[in-house]
Design brief:
By secondary structure, the chain is α+β, with helices and mostly antiparallel strands. It is built from 16 helices and 23 strands.
Length: 552
């Protein structure tokens, strides 16, 4: 409620129960909320980062150190904190990795901006300096990029392994990185010299049981279904595959109809005709040469019997997305009318088999010729391990295509941040004025990444930063922090490699979020009676509240 006094009468502008925070209080509140979010994921950064256990309201447990997963699971209520969660989501959508880095950088930018505002530097001046710094940082990253192509398997494997480092899958990272690179290269398409990669064509199927190294790539598709009849063959070799987008059932009329049969003979004729229709459908399939059928819809019990009799392997109610992946993997056309079925519409797979994994039957379509869609079957000892492994593989399926499509990679381990910070300090001196202070603060903020890597590894962050800066002053732009040995090394030679897009997107997203939060000087909180808005006790008045998370 905002009362205004006119002619002695108060005028109520906002609904009663509304709250308003202005000026420095609003800025401090928003910055504090954003920094709490950054602090909550900071300890997960790097190879020696720790995991978080997240328990939701119904008791489901997630154990992870994946930044975006942590932030999605947290019940964040403060609007400024939600902006930080959006930073992580954008980073995840664009590149799949670097979510923690983006949030941590954004938090540090705001922390240093607050110090500048306390020195009476206007937030718009700070925001302007940050924009200049972010633009210059993007140019520096492009200049630092190291060329890579789709043929550089070893570098692509190292990119995947860097994304896995510090996660639960690290002990098998060489094996898993090889699977990811093979999968990405399988679905890559080159047309007129342009490479396109759609990772939606890589299917991830997960099953609890076995160990991490039981995870495998299938040159084809895995379907979590079983054959429809036990008399059907369990294995079909050199399979000719039919993909059906229609049911193998007697079609119902489009309009309501009532048939009255008084004569038992006519009843028998009616049933015989139904049987004949189903028999004809199966005959059409058999005559085409198909010995495996994947049907998107239902298969009648009698049709199942006829298919089994003909030795045809059939699976029903296959998801539309799986049918499309099968088409890309086997080369089969998706048929909507059996009348149009020809032998050239069929696809090929070396083996189609039903395999029991854990307690479930699954259908494997293997050994496809040049499949443009493949599957990765993820295995692990517990459900939590399998879920974390799936998240890790999805991260890798973001960074490997990014490296191929951009054709540029960077050394990791904090090397790019130190180099960009060094270049930005030189740039700041050329700009001068109050923006210089903002650009220098931006440079200092980027160094939060190597500093956090050192802290999380139990190393002295000041000593490590001094060593890194010293190396970079002597043209050592690839030198970063080896957290295992506590030494400064050439990260490219050590195989710690990231796509240029990860760093570029992280810096752009972090700076945009920081600038947006800095420019807010008035927060008006609607009363709790308004739907969709947090109540007055949602942390807007003082320390930001984040449901489910204790204050940091």
């Amino acid at each position: 409620m905002i009362p205004a006094q006119m002619s002695g009468q108060p005028i109520l502008i906002l609904r009663e129960g509304s709250e308003r925070t202005r000026g420095r209080d609003a800025q401090r509140m928003n910055i504090t909320a954003a920094r709490i979010i950054a602090e909550s994921v900071k300890t997960t950064l790097g190879p020696r980062g720790m995991d978080k256990m997240l328990v939701d309201s119904i008791g489901d447990v997630v154990v992870t150190n994946d930044g975006v997963t942590i932030l999605k699971e947290m019940d964040v209520e403060h609007p400024a904190a939600k902006m930080m969660v959006e930073v992580a989501k954008t980073q995840d959508d664009e590149v799949g990795d670097g979510t923690t880095s983006a949030v941590v950088i954004a938090g540090e930018l705001l922390k240093r901006a607050e110090a500048l505002i306390d020195q009476e530097i206007h937030p718009t001046v700070v925001a302007g300096g940050y924009r200049l710094a972010a633009s210059k940082a993007t140019d520096i990253i492009k200049k630092m990029g190291i060329d890579v192509s789709i043929e550089d398997d070893e570098i692509l494997r190292q990119v995947a392994m860097t994304a896995m480092t510090g996660k639960g899958a690290e002990k098998a990272k060489e094996y898993l990185a090889d699977l990811v690179v093979k999968a990405v290269k399988a679905v890559a398409e080159i047309e007129d010299g342009e490479i396109s990669i759609d990772t939606d064509h890589i299917k991830i199927e997960k099953k609890v049981g076995g160990g991490i190294k039981d995870t495998e790539i299938i040159q084809g598709i895995v379907i979590d279904k079983e054959r429809v009849h036990s008399s059907m063959p369990r294995v079909v070799k050199n399979a000719k595959i039919l993909l059906l987008n229609t049911s193998l059932e007697v079609k119902k009329t489009e309009f309501d109809a009532k048939i009255q049969i008084a004569d038992p003979e006519k009843m028998k004729a009616f049933l015989d005709e139904e049987e004949h229709m189903l028999s004809s459908m199966v005959k059409q399939i058999k005559d085409s040469g198909a010995d495996v059928v994947f049907c998107q819809k239902g298969i009648d019990d009698l049709a199942q019997h006829y298919l089994a009799k003909e030795g045809i392997f059939a699976v029903r109610r296959v998801k539309k997305s799986d049918i499309e992946k099968l088409s890309r993997a086997t080369g089969a056309d998706i048929i909507t009318n059996l009348e149009d079925l020809e032998e050239e519409n069929l696809g090929y797979a070396g083996v189609v088999e039903e395999v029991k994994i854990s307690d479930d039957e699954m259908v494997f379509v293997r050994e496809c010729k040049d499949p443009k869609s493949v599957s990765i079957l993820v295995r692990g000892g517990t459900e939590h391990i399998v879920d974390e492994l799936e998240r890790t593989i999805e991260d890798c399926l973001g960074v490997v295509p990014a490296a191929i499509l951009d054709g540029k990679v960077l050394a990791g381990g904090g090397a790019p941040e130190i180099e960009i910070a060094k270049e930005l300090r030189t740039y700041a001196r050329a700009i001068g004025g109050r923006e210089q202070l903002a650009i220098e603060s931006f440079a200092d903020s980027l160094e939060v990444i190597p500093r956090s890597l050192a802290e999380n590894a139990g190393l002295d962050p000041i000593d490590m930063l001094v060593s890194l800066r010293s190396k970079h002053e002597k043209n050592g732009e690839r030198y970063g922090l080896d957290v295992y040995k506590g030494e400064v090394k050439d990260m490219f030679k050590e195989g710690v490699i990231e796509p240029v897009r990860v760093k570029k997107q992280a810096i752009e997203s972090a700076s945009e979020a920081a600038v947006m939060i800095l420019r807010i000087d008035d927060v008006i909180l609607a009363s709790s009676s308004d739907k969709g808005m947090p109540s007055g006790g949602a942390g807007m008045g003082g320390m930001p509240g984040m449901g489910g998370m204790p204050p940091m």
